[in-house]
Amino acid sequence: MSRFRYLMPALLGFIATSPSIFAKNDAEGEGGTGFLEAIQASGTIGYLIIVMSVVAMALIIEHFMTLKREKLAPPEVIDEVEELFQEGNYQEALEACEASPCFFANVTAAGIRKLGHPFAAIEKSIEEMEDEESIKLQQKIGWLSLIAGIGPMMGLFGTVTGMVGAFATIGSAGAGGVNPSDFAADISLALMTTVLGLTVAIPTTAFFAYFRNKVTMTSLEIGAVVEDMFERFRAAD
Q1: What is the per-residue pLDDT across 140-177, written as a single tens digit (0 to 9) for each?
Q2: Which of 39, 98, 159, 227 has the maximum number of C-beta atoms within 10 A of its C-beta?
Q3: Taking the CB of residue 148, how many other CB atoms lie within 10 A of it?
Q4: Minimal CA–CA distance to 196: which of 225, 233, 159, 228?
Q5: How far apart are CA 20 and CA 23, in angstroms?
Q6: What is the DSSP secondary-structure string of 187-218?
């Protein structure tokens, strides 16, 4: 996981600086299409893709802040519940979990509520809550997968729209033929929407894969902590 510590800033930088791919080197004195001109050329579809990129960036930042082991299983909550377990104060442990809802607390509370039942019932309750909490996290990061999938499709839609417009311009030309400048705007729409769609989809897909793996590993780690905490009830069963 330490490798991702260096990969994530690079990917964030890729998203933040991606507009530069639309600009040419002005130091060489070349004319070219700037970022704003490229966005304008991409039309309404391009603006929609830009909005999607902003949403993706907001989700990525939010996931970095919330999908952490310290947030899903605060060490202070684990220590408090473990201490109450050692003292046999299970009702207070339940109240502590309900006062600090999180992945760990919700799973632990599900197990505490089954105390007094056979250990198999306690274990099943814990596993069901683990699955439920994991599904919630997977659904949370699923929006990134949706954006990563829609981005190229939006780009393709813009490409088809631009090509249809270009051929329509060519088809409506009279006997004198058509100048390239007549359908340049349509071709620009076709190309720029594709570029924008891929620019959003590539890093978003990478972040989705990262968060998916992070959620899986964190869920397994928290599950192991909870199971170890309730292992004492197996011998008492």
Answers
A1: 999 999 999 999 998 888 888 777 776 676 667 655 56
A2: 159
A3: 21
A4: 159
A5: 5
A6: HHHHHHHHHHHHHHHHHHHHHHHHHHHHHHHH
